């Protein structure tokens, strides 16, 4: 196979041609001092679990790497170091319980040493002592390391909970398919149950199938793993100690958006859509798989840097983070940004924390005030059967609309 590339709005799309010859923040007491594989994620004593999503760092060679799509006045002094500074600022401001990097963490084509680029890209997360994970995008492997090599390197880094692939699965497409369970508050009836399930998948890079151009997609083997994992988690949650009537909510993270993201316009999402949906040119059916599982309440992707919207389709929120890195295409004058998700537990009358009550989100901009925008209630146990409520609330200075 021979491939040719075409630049589309700053992304390189590979079209296959075939020849017919053919900042220090401490861990919770539950995780401090333990190796990453033994760390137990759980809700804090405030009944919350906060996730910071960082999409499309496009990290290359540090201070020698120029920024893209910034104001002319910013260009001379702007580099990958601006990306690093933004990560540091937002970690200190939000103090998340988990940091999720959703692909194109490095821009392999411009990274002279991919391992050094990854060291620098993830350095603020590592220094914070906050658990972090990553999945791959379509640019991570474009340097001297293979896709598997990139994921293996990430999985070996300090404080990461990332793994190359599920240890009990022998055949699965891609690299970086895994899940994490988040336990309830220590000392409560839910401390030994996963009250929140996080799924991470490799959405691929480019199509390897003849006559199907463009980006990759989540393959049948990955969907089979997801279905089995979701079924196992649902059964464990709904049976055993403190049986529940419904599965624990789940969140899914990967890089390339699903084709279903194209179902939205400005009338039915929160945020902005400033470019087309760069999904695969085929529909793998993963959205249907998510609906059938019944537990995933929201999907979070990157890839399309100047889209940052969230919209709900058939009960599942489809959300972009918005572009974060300064060596990634963007829009001059439109701030780089990150998405925050906070999951809150129900509190009983006697003051004990139980299962998940709500999932909320907002974005933080890399401006002078780290402005919070577009607060939303993505899911609520109390209002899950309603299309949209009419109330507004304020959370950490961000207006949230249900």
What does this structure look like?
With 402 residues, the protein is an alpha/beta fold. It has one domain (2-401): 4-Layer Sandwich (Purple Acid Phosphatase, chain A, domain 2), CATH 3.60.21.10. Helix content is 17%, strand content 26%. It is built from six helices and 17 strands. A hairpin with a 2-residue loop joins β16 (392-395) and β17. α2 runs parallel beside α3 (114-128). It starts with a strand and ends with a strand. 48% of the residues are buried.
Strand content: 25-35%
Q: Overall mean pLDDT score?
A: 89
Q: The biggest beta sheet, please?
A: 8 strands, mixed
Question: What is the third-level CATH name, the topology?
Answer: Purple Acid Phosphatase, chain A, domain 2
Q: Strand arrangement, largest sheet?
A: 6-5-4-13-14-15-17-16
Rounded to the nearest angstrom, the radius of gyration is 20 Å
Oligomeric state of the chains in view: single chain
Order of helices and strands: EEEEHHEHEHEEHEHEEEEEEEE
Distance between the termini: 49 Å
CATH superfamily: Metallo-dependent phosphatases
Shape: globular
How helix-rich are the residues, as a percent range? 10-25%
CATH class: Alpha Beta
Structural class of the helices, strands and pairings? alpha/beta
Given as residue ranges, the uncertain stretches (5+ residues, pLDDT < 50) are 1-9, 12-38, 384-396
Question: What is the number of beta strands?
Answer: 17
Number of helices: 6
Task: Give the name of the CATH architecture.
Answer: 4-Layer Sandwich
Number of domains: 1
Main location: secreted
Signal peptide: 1-28
Subcellular location: Secreted
Pfam families: Metallophos
